[in-house]
Write a structure and sequence with these properties.
About 25% of the residues lie in helices and about 30% in strands. Helix 8 crosses helix 15. The chain contains 16 helices and 38 strands. Strands 29, 30, 31, 32, 33, 34, 35, 36, 37 and 38 form a ten-stranded mixed sheet that branches. A six-stranded mixed sheet has the order 8-5-7-6-10-9, with no helix packed on it. Strand 24 and strand 25 form a beta hairpin. The termini are far apart. By secondary structure, it is of the alpha/beta class. The longest helix is centred in the middle third of the chain and has 20 residues. It has five domains: about 160 residues, MoaB/Mog-like domain (Molybdenum Cofactor Biosythetic Enzyme, Chain A, 3-Layer(aba) Sandwich); about 60 residues, Molybdopterin biosynthesis moea protein, domain 2 (Alpha-Beta Complex), CATH 3.90.105.10; about 90 residues, Molybdopterin biosynthesis moeA protein, domain 3; about 70 residues, MoeA, C-terminal, domain IV (Beta-clip, Beta Barrel); about 220 residues, D-Maltodextrin-Binding Protein, domain 2 (3-Layer(aba) Sandwich).
């Protein structure tokens, strides 16, 4: 038999292109979250609960009505009557009246009517409670759903699970997670091979490759499956390749890859699949095979251990890591601060996200588990540094290798954005900073897209706020409509908006689009009844009790702390509550004019205007005739 020749050698770039084209699929397995570190999610994780599930105190102190403390001074404290105490872990039946306070522990459920917590160090007890410092509404309070909303996708498929992501899973009550698994079959071929632990015969050597590759696969996050040693026999090799193809996602062989008469691997692969490359222009590792056998990707690695590991590390390991979303070890980088940061007067590790070499703080507060899962790394602020200016260069310790994003979204988050991101297939980095935060990010040149839903006193949504924020070099793109209405328990007798005047309500925070809409409707009612707006709202129990999120409104109604609230249909339905539509708000996007011709923004707008988005938009949202319309600032 004559000596065979290698086919035309492929370059490293060509080899990588071939590997890129391989159709590699991972399998999945359910694991307990305590064993999930280093694994990669095989599916999106959508929260079935709000985090926190109730509005809670974020400090030890006293739950109060903020207006009762406005006159408090260090030398002239305000006196309040103590009417109870609430430890963590209980849902107390305590309803506060003006002038009263309730002792409360960190993490405890806020009592009805209380809207803030004064820290214990700013008080003293002398039969009654004396408050030495005023607090504002919502101070030291964490609202239901302010960290994670029910129905929100908290972790995406392909996310590498570390301690941070495992904390997120635990926070929403998940005990297990479906994670990706790459089963990698390992086959050593050669008549000369013997298992370690056996006594060597003449001409035999111990099998090294199957054990070194086994460990290398594990280091990449793959699941190695060792099929042992196979003799240089075509039938035996074919049989074990078929077995590996049935049980694995990728197959590695070592040995029998050269062009000599005794090396038959490439022929067997070709007979049962396809040889895509035989020989790579690299040293060591030239006699390598890339192909498919029995429908699965196969890499024929050289028999020499050094060559085998070289080819594995250069070509196979990156593929496994890519399939599993594995990140590199912690790295350092430099970035410019996107905004001014004031220190807390002590050493601080501030989580930051990095986009286009700009570091922006990612900090929802100490009670928010998602603070770290949304960050790229952290900066260390020494205690003697009072402030870091925008544009100042900082050292960032990364949690892993930075992943580039196609678009940066800042603004008020909506479940419709998740659908848009999925349909565009773009990597959209999302910072939930509210409508005003989104407009500020557009004005400063940080954001590519802002999501806003602000209602002006004139009754016009969003457009007036571009001028109000001094934005002249951006456009408003009309998005979709969100149903706003009354959120009620199923057995509620409330039939229409006017009925809330005689009910106990939970209101939205001042400045929110929902609050502006609510006040406009109440002003109309006051005018019809011939009373002032202040007189009307003064009669409404709970009008001044504010919630920062739609989920917090739903949670208060669900827990019986309010009879009604105003919010979006989506959150009402996800909480199993009754919803009565009273209006539709306009959720729009602000985009810098200079980006309108970019491929990414064009893709975003095409999907926004598509029938596919129209069909898949979540319940409570709907596209309409103006969706995708561009309004000049």
């Amino acid at each position: 038999m004559g000596v065979k020749e290698f086919r035309k050698l492929v370059t490293m770039d060509e080899a990588n292109n071939i590997i890129e084209s391989l159709d590699v699929h991972s399998s999945s397995i359910e694991v307990d979250i305590e064993n999930a570190s280093g694994c990669v999610l095989a599916e999106d994780i959508v929260s079935e609960v709000d985090v926190p599930p109730f509005t809670r105190a974020s400090m030890d102190g006293y739950a109060v009505c903020a207006p009762d403390t406005y006159q408090a001074r260090e030398d002239k404290p305000v006196r309040l009557k103590l009417v109870g105490a609430i430890p963590a872990g209980l849902n107390p039946d305590i309803h506060m009246e003006p002038g009263e306070a309730v002792e409360i522990s960190t993490g405890a459920v806020m009592p009805a009517s209380a809207d803030s917590v004064v820290m214990v160090e700013y008080t003293h007890i002398d039969k009654d409670l004396y408050v030495h410092r005023p607090v504002s509404i919502n101070e030291n309070v964490m609202h239901a759903g302010s960290d994670i909303m029910v129905g929100e996708r908290v972790l995406k498929k392909g996310t590498l699970l570390t301690a941070r992501e495992t904390g997120v899973l635990a926070s929403i009550g998940e005990k297990t997670a479906s994670v990706s698994r790459i089963n990698v079959g390992i086959i050593s071929t050669g008549n000369e091979l013997a298992e370690p632990g056996c006594e060597l015969g003449e001409g035999e050597i111990y099998d090294i490759n199957s054990f070194s590759l086994f460990c290398a696969v594990k280091e990449c996050g793959g699941t190695p499956v060792r099929y042992g040693i196979v003799r240089d026999n075509g039938n035996e090799i074919t049989k074990v390749l078929k077995k590996a193809a049935d049980g694995c996602d990728i197959i590695l062989t070592s040995g029998s890859t050269s062009a000599g008469s005794g090396d038959i691997m490439y022929r067997i692969i070709e007979e049962n699949g396809a040889v895509l490359a035989h020989g790579i222009d690299i040293k060591p590792g030239k006699p390598a095979i890339i192909g498919k056998v029995f429908g699965k990707p196969v890499f024929g690695l050289p028999g020499y251990p050094a060559s085998s590991l070289t080819i594995f590390n250069e070509f196979v390991a990156p593929l496994i890591r890519k399939m599993l979303g594995k990140k590199e070890e912690r790295l350092q980088t430099k970035a410019k601060m996107a905004v001014r940061i004031r220190s807390e007067g002590r050493s601080q590790l501030l989580p930051v996200g990095i986009v286009r070499n700009l570091a922006y703080p990612v900090d929802k507060g100490s009670g928010a588990i998602t603070t770290l899962s949304e960050a790229d790394g952290f900066i260390k602020i020494p205690g003697n540094v009072e402030m870091i200016d925008a544009g100042e260069l900082v050292d960032v310790t990364l949690f892993g290798k930075l992943e580039s994003s196609d678009l940066l979204f800042v603004g008020s988050h909506c479940l419709g954005l998740d659908t848009l991101a999925d349909l565009t297939r773009l990597k959209i980095r999302v910072i939930n900073a509210g409508s005003s935060g989104g407009l500020s990010a557009i004005r400063s040149g940080i954001a590519d897209i802002a999501g806003i839903h602000l209602l002006d006193e004139s009754g016009i949504y969003n457009v007036p706020f571009l001028e109000r924020f001094g934005i002249t070099d951006a456009v408003l793109v009309k998005g979709y409509l969100r149903e706003q209405g009354l959120i009620l328990r199923k057995d509620s007798g409330i039939k229409k908006f006017e009925d809330i005047i005689n009910a106990r309500i939970i209101n939205r925070n001042t400045g929110s689009g929902t609050r502006v809409m609510t006040d406009m409707k109440l002003k109309d009612i006051a005018k019809q009844r011939g009373v002032t707006f202040e007189e009307l709202t003064g009669r409404i129990n709970g009008y001044h009790t504010e919630a920062k999120t739609h989920s917090a409104v739903a949670a208060a109604v669900k827990l019986g702390k309010a009879d009604a609230g105003i919010g979006i249909r989506t959150v009402a339905e996800l909480n199993g509550l009754k919803f009565i539509k009273i209006a539709e708000e306009e959720y729009d996007f602000v985009i810098p004019s200079r980006l309108l011709r970019t491929k990414e923004i064009k893709t975003f707008l095409e999907v926004l205007r598509s029938n596919e988005f129209k069909e898949k938009v979540p319940s409570g949202l709907r596209v309409y005739e103006r969706t995708g319309e561009i309004v000049e600032a």
